[in-house]
Amino acid sequence: MPIYEFECLECGSEFEKLVRGKKEEQRVACPACGSPKVEEEFSAFASSVKGGSASGRAACAPSGG
């Protein structure tokens, strides 16, 4: 389930909220002032790669010598 970033159009507060669907997105209110006048912000997402090396071995694995 995605976490969306919002900005309150009343007080300017920025916050994040876990939104489970479009229906719930319509009910988002600012936690600082309670205003329902919020705007969804564009946000970057983070990703990670398991292992992290081209050979598929983790960098901290022993080398077998």
Structure description:
With 65 residues, this protein is mainly β. It has a domain at 3-40. Helix content is 6%, strand content 22%. The protein contains one helix and three strands; from the N terminus they run E-E-H-E. The protein has a three-stranded antiparallel beta sheet with strand order 2-1-3, with no helix packed on it. Strand 1 (3-8) and strand 2 form a beta hairpin. The N and C termini lie far apart (44 Å).
Task: Write a brief structural summary.
This protein has 65 residues and is mainly β.
**Tally of helical runs:** 1
Derived structural class: mainly beta
Mean pLDDT: 77
> Termini distance?
44 Å
Question: What keywords describe this structure?
Answer:
elongated, mainly beta, 1 helix, 65 residues, 22% strand
Q: Topology, pairings included?
A:
Blueprint (H helix, E strand, L loop, with lengths): L2 E6 L5 E5 L3 H4 L12 E3 L25
Antiparallel strand pairs: 1-2, 1-3
